[in-house]
Each structure stands twice: as C-alpha cells, then as structure tokens.
Amino acid sequence: MIRSTTFLEVRYYETDLMGIVHHSNYIRYFECGRHKCMVDLGLPIERIENEFGIMLPVVSVECTYRKPAKMGDILRIESRIEQMPKAKIEVLTEIYNQNDELVVTGKVVLGFIHADTRKPTRVPQCMVDVFSPFFND
Predict the structure, then answer these.
(1) Catalytic residue ranges
(2) CA-CA distance, 125 to 101, in Å (whole number)?
(3) Taking the complete model, does pTM exceed 0.90, yes or no?
(4) CA pair distance 93, 135, nearest whole angstrom
(5) Sign of CA pseudo-dihedral 99, 101, 106, 107
(6) Pairwise CA distance, residues 11 & 117, whole Å
C-alpha cells in the first residue's frame, strides 16, 4: 500500500456564505493529496506527461461528506493507493480537520491515455517500476 499525507488551510474563497467549504472544493483537495502522493514517490504527474507521454484523466469520483470544514480549518489529507494499477489507478482519500474529526472520504479513479493519440493504454512502465516495491505480494 502507498500512503501520503498533506495539509492545507481552508481559504475564504473556498467557503460559502455560511463559512463552510463548498462541496465542490473537496474534489480539489483530493487532487492536492493525489499530487503530493505522486511527488512523494518521485513521479509527479507532470513528469509522467512530459517524459513518458501519458496522461491520467479522471474516470470517476466518489465523495461522502461527514462533517463540514470551515474557513481557517487545517485539513489533513490522507491519500492511499491500495492496489497495483493496471488499466486504471484508484486513489482513496480521507480528510480530517485539526481536531482529527473525519470530514470527508472519497475515491478518484484515473485512467491512462497516450498524450498524442488520446487512446487508452495500460499503466506506464515508469509507474510499474516505482509502485512495484509497495505491492510485492
């Protein structure tokens, strides 16, 4: 399993008139966690695109809201990949506030396409090489 943690502070523009994070922003928070996870692995998404010609489009998103986050909250974004990617990669996310209360859970599924043709492909070898030590069973 691959795990990564990142933190961010809820900004004013991410909230509604009640000072609560607008529901659409959690998808952006998922992306922040996903990006940090790939950076931690030494394989940021922009490198996969630029060096290997593979893009990772979002295929689906699931999000379950548990407790509202508010302006000024410090969120802990826990991202994990529990399965070796093949034709897609699933990133599970849990977001907690500064009181360690679960705010939201979710899952983002990404596919793999060739940047030039936009045709689907399997997981690129660069990811297999980096991910394999975490899934050696």
Answers:
(1) 16
(2) 38
(3) yes
(4) 19
(5) positive
(6) 38
How many angstroms separate the CA atoms of 19 and 12, rounded? 8
| Tokens 């990133």 -> residue | 91
In tens, the pLDDT along 83-136 reads 999 999 999 999 999 999 999 999 999 999 999 999 999 999 999 999 999 997
What's the chain's Rg over C-alpha atoms? 16
Structure tokens at 85: 């990617």
Q: Which helix (H) or strand (E) holds 54?
A: strand 54-55
The kind and range of the H/E element at 95 are strand 88-96
Looking at this protein, which amino acid is placed at residue 29? Y
